[in-house]
Amino acid sequence: MNKNKKDIKIEYGMSHSEFIENIKYDKTLYFELSPSFSNHKIISKGFGKIIAIIGTFTYLIIPLIFVPIVAYMYSNWYLLFGILFSYLSTMLEGGKIIKWIYAYCLIFFSWYWYDFGFHLNEYANLFVLCVLWGSLTYYILSLIEEDFVKKEIYNDSVLFNTLSNNRSILFVSIESKKKTNLNQL
User: Secondary structure of the chain: what % helix, strand, coil (to 5)?
Assistant: First the structure.
């Protein structure tokens, strides 16, 4: 489906019952967390919280184990800065410009690795690997956590209404010229 920005309609302040009722008529309607929403950890419960904790633990521990082993194997302790690059990459995550920079760096290093080979004892190779690990793991974890948070919000009508009134969630639908008007139904 071709989505133009002008075809996307965003609304605020819909109650849980209104949202459920409107889904019956508008199959493109869904809700998103507002960019300012920061209560993921508080709302996440059960299996979602366990997955987030295990994922965060894995994200933090893997560089602490892997990078020192590589540094020890090559007797190059400057490679330990890879741990720092892995953790700093999550702070840079988010903006479109950063994603384009990641894409161009990945293309460049793919070419470099193809021509010269991939050697962990080279600073750039290990540091890029650490940055990719940090940013991709953080991105995947945030998507998983957001999915579980959305399920919690959807299943709790009181929480849904509270967040809707606070503009912490927004409602998105894709308008098409063929779609019937909801007021005519």
Answer: 70, 10, 25
